[in-house]
Amino acid sequence: MANINAFFSHISEYLMMAWQALVSHKLRSFLTTLGILIGVTTIISIWTTIEGLNQYVFGQLSNIGASTVYVQKYPWVIKGDFWKYRNRKPITYKEYQALMEHCTLAEHISPEIFAAKNIRYKSKKFENIFVIGTSEQYAFTANVAPEIGRFLTELDVYNNRYVCVLGREVADRLFDKENPLGKKIFIGDRKYLVVGVLERKGNFFGQSMDNFVIVPFGTFRRVYGGHRELRIALLTKPEKLENMKDQIRSILRRVRKVHPTKEDDFSINQQDMLTDLYKSLTTTLFAIVFVIGGISLVVGGIGIMNIMLVSVAERTREIGVRKAIGATRRNILSQFLFEAIVISSIGGLIGIVLGFIAGSLILAQMNLTGGVSLTSILIGFGFSGFVGVTAGFYPAYKAARLNPIDSLRYE
Prior knowledge:
- By secondary structure, the protein is of the alpha+beta class.
- It is 58% helix and 17% strand.
- It contains 14 helices and 12 strands.
- It has a 6-stranded mixed beta barrel with strand order 2-3-10-5-7-6. A two-stranded antiparallel ribbon has the order 8-9.
């Protein structure tokens, strides 16, 4: 118990001496911490920004569904020769029929066909609204649900009815506070009955996720043409995902008559392709940030080392007096090492606060939310503490090795 009390007594004494040294040279202390402050601010601000961005991006990507795959002509992430993908045959209704008949591992399959059309309700008219022709299965594959009314039914699709489901933004723009259910709108030159409005999904990097209209697949093909390229969405249970992809590949290669020695002439896209791409981008950004912040920390460490060497030279006589009255080399080493750590830690603490403020301002400009995390605090203190120990050790060691007699003679 006595040893523990003595240890904490020494620690408090070293901290007090370090604080007195800082206060007695305010400007010099500030300039010394500046490099650490800038480095930690840079790292924490970008860390806070990326964490807020991660929450937003992964939240939006979760709407795609981890167990949903999309059969398309193009991959979501194109690597290599673009023209290789450009020259592929389009995905057509024939492939959709084959998957509906033979893909037994898929729980839900929806065809998706797209066009941009003008829509009108009374005197309100909007141009180039995204129109999706699909089936009732789209509610499952796209993970959407009506906020009011209903989604497409199997009878709507089977009978090619002129009904539609609106995205929340389209409903707000057309009807304002009026109830859209049961109203008729023009999509192109055809009139459709509004049967539902979907829940709001918000924006994704400034692009609205609610600015679209859904109509039955057959109705779309009849009115706007059936020779358009399709996208086919298939949903299964997570444990069946890889097996379903193999089944899809086997069916499509047979239907599209792909030679056994040739590679697939279609793409099977899924959520993890986008998350992997995003992670690779943020990993690169993290590396760049840590390099920039690391340079600032190295500069700050050199500044601390230089100032501590100056401090040792100025206090040589003090060191001699302390040694003459019984201070050991370990005491002197600890004193100056603690002083370097305190200087660095103060810079790190201020850097954490400024970094969080800067990161929050960046997120606010992007209309995102974020907060300081325990990880970022530990990183800030960890970097600053490491720099303090590394930069302060040599000056502290030099002070501890001074000869007490020579130190007392020093002027």
